[in-house]
Recover the amino acids of this structure.
C-alpha cells in the first residue's frame, strides 16, 4: 500500500531509441470490477490477467473482509467465491483502500444497500478526495454516512435496512459515481435509473450484463439512461482482463518523444469510452497505428504501434473527449511539451480531484522543467518546445502514480533528464513499469537509499 513506507526518489535520463514490445498489465478499472462483481455472485468467478497493483490488491483484501473467498493462483490467475447480492457480512476491521478512489467508491456502493456498517480509510491522497459525490446518492437508497468535512475519509457507512431504488442524475462526469449507484442498486428492489450527461467508461454496465443482471442503456436528449433491475442473482463468470490502455499510454508516448523509437504495444482495448488519448495523438500527427484491429469479448482491440514523431503539433483537445481520456492528460501534457505549438485542454475540472490536483502537479513540474504552462479552474495550455525540453529538475509526485510515470517519461526525451521525489506510487497501477521500460531501452533509475 502506498503512502505509508519510505519514499523512492527516481531519475530518468535522455536515452537512445526505445525498441521492442511492451506487454502492459491488466486493466485497473476492469480488475476492480471483476473482484467486486465476483464477490457479489453466487459461486466461483475465475479471473485471468488481473492487475496485481496495490490498488487492486486492496480491493481483493476488502472483498475478503466482506466475506468472499479470494484466491491468488499465480500468473495473474485469481478466483473469487462470491457471497451473492446482499450477502456481504459486516467487516470486523476498517477497510483500507490505500490510494484507490475507484476501489473505495465502488465498494461503498456495493455495501450501502445491505444492513451492515463499514468504516473506510485510505492513504493521505485518498483521504483528501471528495466522497460526498458518492455518499449523497447512497443516502437516497437509505444509507447513512458519517465522515469528515465534505464526506472525506475516514468515513463510516451504515447500509440501508430496507433499501429503496433511486433515479439519479450524476452531477459530475464520473464512472466511479455512476458505478457506485449501480452497485448499490443491485440490492434495492425494483428499478434503479442512472442518468449521465457525458458518457464515461462503461465497464460496470458491460460487466453487470455479463454477470446476468437485467440492465438496459438508452441514449436520448437527456443523456445516457441506464436502468438496472435490482436483486438479481449474479452468475459467476470466467473473465480475461484486457490490457490497460491507460498504462499503454506510457510506453507509447515515450516512443513518440525519444528519437529513433519503434515500439509495439499489443492487445490494447480500444473501448471508445477509454481510447480518447490515442485519437488525440493521431490528430497531433503522431506516428501511431492501430494494427490487427479485432473484436475480443465484444470490445475492439488492437496492437498499437508507435514510432518517434518529431513533427507533432499542438491541438485543441475537444472537451467532449475528456471523459474518454481523463487519466491520460498528464502524459498528454508531456507529449505536448515536445510538440510544435500550443496544446489546449479544456473541460477538465475533474483533473483537480484525482489522486492529486493533476493540473497543478503537472503545471508546476513542467514549468520547472522549462515548459510554459497556463492554467485555470478547468483548463490548461501547454506550449510545445519543438523537441527541446530542458528538464533537469525534480518534480513532486503527490502520491500520484500517473504524475510519477509522466515525469519519468519526460526525462527520457529531455536534455537533462528528469527526477521525481517519489516513485512508490507507480506500483498502484503499473507494478512492472520499471522492468518494462528498461527492456525497451529506457534509462530509469532509483536514486534513493
Ligand atoms: C475510474 C474512473 C475514473 C478514472 C479512474 C478509474 C473507474 O474516475 O479517473 O482512474 O474505474 O471507474 P472518475 O470516475 O472519478 O472520473
Amino acid at each position: 500500500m502506498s503512502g505509508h513506507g519510505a519514499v523512492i526518489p527516481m531519475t530518468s535520463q535522455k536515452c537512445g531509441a526505445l525498441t521492442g514490445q511492451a506487454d502492459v498489465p491488466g486493466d485497473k478499472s476492469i480488475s476492480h470490477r471483476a473482484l467486486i462483481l465476483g464477490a457479489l455472485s453466487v459461486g466461483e468467478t475465475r479471473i485471468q490477467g488481473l492487475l496485481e497493483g496495490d490498488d487492486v490488491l486492496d480491493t481483493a483484501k476488502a472483498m475478503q473482509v466482506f466475506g468472499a473467498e479470494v484466491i491468488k493462483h499465480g500468473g495473474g490467475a485469481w478466483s473469487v467465491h462470491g457471497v451473492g447480492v446482499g450477502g456481504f457480512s459486516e467487516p470486523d476491521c476498517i477497510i483500507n483502500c490505500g490510494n484507490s478512489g475507484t476501489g473505495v467508491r465502488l465498494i461503498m456502493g456495493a455495501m450501502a444497500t445491505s444492513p451492515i456498517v463499514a468504516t473506510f480509510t485510505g492513504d493521505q491522497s485518498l483521504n483528501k478526495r471528495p466522497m460526498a459525490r458518492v455518499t449523497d446518492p447512497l443516502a437516497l437508497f437509505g444509507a447513512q454516512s458519517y465522515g469528515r468535512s465534505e464526506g472525506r475519509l475516514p468515513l463510516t457507512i451504515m447500509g440501508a435496512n430496507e433499501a429503496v431504488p433511486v433515479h439519479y442524475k450524476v452531477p459530475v462526469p464520473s464512472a466511479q459515481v455512476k458505478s457506485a449507484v449501480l452497485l448499490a442498486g443491485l440490492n434495492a428492489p425494483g428499478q434503479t435509473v442512472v442518468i449521465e450527461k457525458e458518457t464515461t467508461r462503461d465497464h460496470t454496465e458491460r460487466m453487470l450484463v455479463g454477470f446476468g443482471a437485467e440492465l438496459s442503456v438508452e441514449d436520448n436528449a437527456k443523456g445516457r439512461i441506464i436502468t438496472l433491475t435490482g436483486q438479481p442473482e449474479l452468475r459467476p463468470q470466467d473473465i480475461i482482463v484486457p490490457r490497460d490502455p491507460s498504462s499503454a499510454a506510457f510506453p507509447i508516448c515515450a516512443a513518440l518523444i525519444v528519437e529513433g523509437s519503434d515500439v509495439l504495444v499489443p492487445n490494447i482495448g480500444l473501448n471508445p469510452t477509454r481510447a480518447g488519448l490515442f485519437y488525440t495523438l493521431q490528430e497531433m500527427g503522431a506516428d501511431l497505428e492501430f494494427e490487427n484491429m479485432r473484436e475480443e469479448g465484444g470490445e475492439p482491440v488492437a496492437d498499437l504501434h508507435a514510432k518517434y514523431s518529431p513533427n507533432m503539433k499542438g491541438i485543441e483537445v475537444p472537451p467532449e473527449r475528456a471523459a474518454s481520456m481523463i487519466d491520460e492528460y498528464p502524459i498528454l501534457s508531456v507529449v505536448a511539451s515536445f510538440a510544435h505549438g500550443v496544446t489546449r485542454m479544456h473541460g477538465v475540472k475533474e483533473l483537480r480531484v484525482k489522486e492529486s490536483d493533476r493540473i497543478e502537479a503537472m503545471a508546476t513540474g513542467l514549468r520547472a522543467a522549462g515548459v510554459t504552462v497556463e492554467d485555470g479552474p478547468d483548463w490548461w495550455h501547454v506550449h510545445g518546445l519543438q523537441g527541446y525540453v530542458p528538464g533537469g529538475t525534480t518534480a513532486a509526485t503527490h502520491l500520484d502514480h500517473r504524475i510519477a510515470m509522466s515525469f519519468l517519461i519526460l526525462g527520457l526525451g529531455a536534455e537533462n533528464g528528469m527526477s521525481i521525489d517519489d516513485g512508490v506510487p507507480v506500483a498502484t497501477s503499473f507494478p512492472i513499469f520499471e522492468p518494462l521500460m528498461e527492456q525497451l531501452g529506457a534509462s530509469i533509475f532509483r536514486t534513493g537509499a
